[in-house]
Amino acid sequence: MIKGNKVKHLNKKVGHRQAMLGNLVQSLFYHENITTTVAKAKVARQIAEKLITRARENQKATLSPAEKVHNLREAGKIITDKEILHKLFDDIAPRFATRPGGYTRILRVGQRISDASEMAVLQLVERKELAQLKDDRSKVRAARKAKSTKKPAEKKAAEPKEKKAKKK
């Protein structure tokens, strides 16, 4: 009788599963948005959230340099690409500085055509693209408000001229 088995095996051997999940998490941090099966997304989400938490803890000023190096090396066991590792610690972790957890979301997108597997999109909650879109939207809204306030003033100035022309 097997008891206490908390690992989702995903029908893979240990080495293949660890490599696959590490690659999924690396892709998530690189693209900030990946499409995979629901089961893989749920397991990758756990790993990603733990790594983001470790990177957030590394931002604290109370940590000694040895503890910071330790956090970096522990994350480096899963994320083998140094560029992505530095992106996690320097770019992604500061974005989630105020968020206590829940750094990722899973959105179900239907079934894969070939084998009808349930597919999902795993994405970071606070993405750079979304922040840029919000900034762009606020600029557009401000420009629209500025234009709308200018137009009535121009119309008022134009209306008296038309009335004078009608009286003649």
UniProtKB/TrEMBL annotation:
Q: Which GO terms describe its biological process?
A: translation
Task: Cite the residue spans of the region called Disordered.
Answer: 133-168
Question: InterPro entries under this entry?
Answer: Ribosomal_bL17, Ribosomal_bL17_CS, Ribosomal_bL17_sf
A GO molecular-function descriptor: structural constituent of ribosome
Q: Which residues form a coiled coil?
A: none
**Keywords from the UniProt entry:** Ribonucleoprotein, Ribosomal protein
Which spans does this entry mark as compositional bias, Basic residues?
A: 140-150
Q: Bias category Basic and acidic residues: which stretches? A: 151-162
Any one GO cellular component localisation term in the record: cytosolic large ribosomal subunit
Subunit comment: Part of the 50S ribosomal subunit. Contacts protein L32.
Family statement drawn from the similarity comment of this UniProt entry: Belongs to the bacterial ribosomal protein bL17 family.
Protein name as it appears in the record: Large ribosomal subunit protein bL17
